[in-house]
Amino acid sequence: MGFELFPPAFILLFAAILIGLVKGHARTAVLLLAPVLTLWAIWQITDGVHSTVEFLTYTLEPIEGSSLRRLFATVFAIMVFVGGLYSYRIAKWYELAAAYAYAAGAIGVCFSGDLISMFVYWELMAIFSTVVVFCGGTPGARAAGIRYAIMHFLGGVVLKIGIVGVVLNTGSVQIQPMLATDFSTWMILIGVLINAAAPPVSAWLADAYPEATPTGSVFLSAFTTKTAVLALILLFPGEPVLIGLGLFMVMYGIIFALLENDVRRILAYSVVNQVGFMVVAVGIGTEMALNGATAHAFAHIVYKALLFMSAGVVIYRTGKNKCIELGGLFRTMPITCACGIIGALAISSFPLTSGFTTKSMISQAAVDGNLMWVYMALTAASAGVFLHAGIKFPWFVFFQKDSGLRPKDAPWNMGLAMIIFAGLCLLLGIFPELLYSLLLTL
To answer: Which residues cross the membrane (predicted)?
Structure first.
């Protein structure tokens, strides 16, 4: 078997094992080299099926390549590298191992060509993301971890019921577009939407992410919801119910983020809001819309991780996570402040940032489809995002009143990780063709 047939997810799984076996510089080398090797392996997978496995009477396709799959896997690998750089000096080895295994599950989903392989990697994500939440180490983290596990394993059961039904009805395990027209397809859609944090079961996200460690929440922000977006693109492009549901997610995230005082809960609710934009785009289902959902998922992983990194440094240095307890930190944390502002501008779709590049594609898709009510709602929602993430987060944390706190700025590795993602936010905004060239052609 050639290396081009080797599942990239296995590299991160092997790295997760090594993280617990080695120490010091060897562990650091594993943390930084494994995602680079994974990224290289991702781009060895060309379009088409590269591996098949016989299971019972079905033929599984654990490795199937396409431009869509490579793009999601690419940003996941980049996230692992920058997240590892950000975390390695303060995170416990078991948290890092769990985070890398969690990322391996996400990359495994990216290349799964059949429903059974996808389900196996899906559950791998659920297991190790739960461990990441538990690594918060507080009573609140343990309670949130239990609730998180219950919700995601329930979602896994629902998804499995749907997969079994589809397989029995069609005789096929292949991943292919479908519409929610019967019990089985509805179960698959609901199972995927649970991971997308779609209401009425979205509370798990804002409940769990702020209870993780400052480093753990960075990893949590990247994989679960965006893997669900990929699954929606592959399985339910053009599903009409997703338009209304996505708009509800957009407004829900804005309202609750505006009401929040906890820094990371603000950002967690804005994850729901931003995934709502992607769900709307999948529901529209045109080439422009699906490209918009894909591009926005890429951009969102970067700027949302950047925002969680900025918040994480503040919590790490001050031990405080409430907006009313912070303020005036720009005086001693200029790098963290500047990177947080860039992330806030990107999520607010400010011109010359990545968020503007990608969110405008979704709005254009609504216009092209004569869905002016969707366009108007998304435009209004963008203003709401600017209020809660573009203004509220950086203003209360870094400016407003002087809290009297004078913490040091980010350690060099955390600062470098933030600078990399801040630069990427600006690069994709100034040169959007870099991202456009990677998008799928439908």
So the answer is: none
Every domain of the chain and the residues it spans? 1-213, 237-442
pTM of the model: 0.95
Q: Specify whether the CB–CB gap between 208 and 265 falls below 8 A.
A: no
The single residue listed with the structure tokens 């990608």 is: 358
CB-based contacts of 304: which residues, under 8 Å, 6+ apart?
Answer: 221, 222, 267, 270, 271, 274, 343, 347
- Residue 1: what pLDDT? 37
- Asked if 211 contacts 151 with a C-beta cutoff of 8 angstroms, the reply is no
First CA to last CA across the chain, in angstroms?
A: 30
Q: Which residues of 269-306 are buried (b: 16+ CB within 10 A; e: fewer)?
A: bbbbbbbbbbbbbbbbbbebbbbbbbbbbbbbbbbbbb
DSSP, residue by residue, 166-206: HHHHHS--B-------SHHHHHHHHHHHHHTT-TTS-HHHH
| pLDDT 10s digits, 151-189 | 999 999 999 999 999 999 998 899 999 999 999 999 999
pLDDT at position 237: 95
Extract the residue ranges of the chain whose pLDDT is less than 50: 1-4, 442
Residue 440: the pLDDT is: 62
Q: Which residue has the tokens 């309670």?
A: 143
Q: What is the pLDDT of residue 442?
A: 44
Cβ proximity of 103 and 80 under 8 Å: yes
Q: Is the dihedral of CA 70, 75, 81, 83 positive or negative?
A: negative
Q: What's the half-sphere exposure (Cβ side, CA atoms, 13 Å) at 223?
A: 35
The predicted structure's pLDDT at residue 4: 44
Going by C-beta distance under 8 Å and a sequence separation of 6 or more, which residues neighbour residue 380?
A: none
Q: Nearest CA to 334 among 404, 407, 388, 266?
A: 407
Predicted local distance difference test score (pLDDT) of residue 334? 95
DSSP-assigned beta bridge partners for residue 262? 322
Output the pLDDT for position 84. 96
Residue 53, H or E segment: strand 48-55
Pull the structure tokens for residue 319.
């031990």
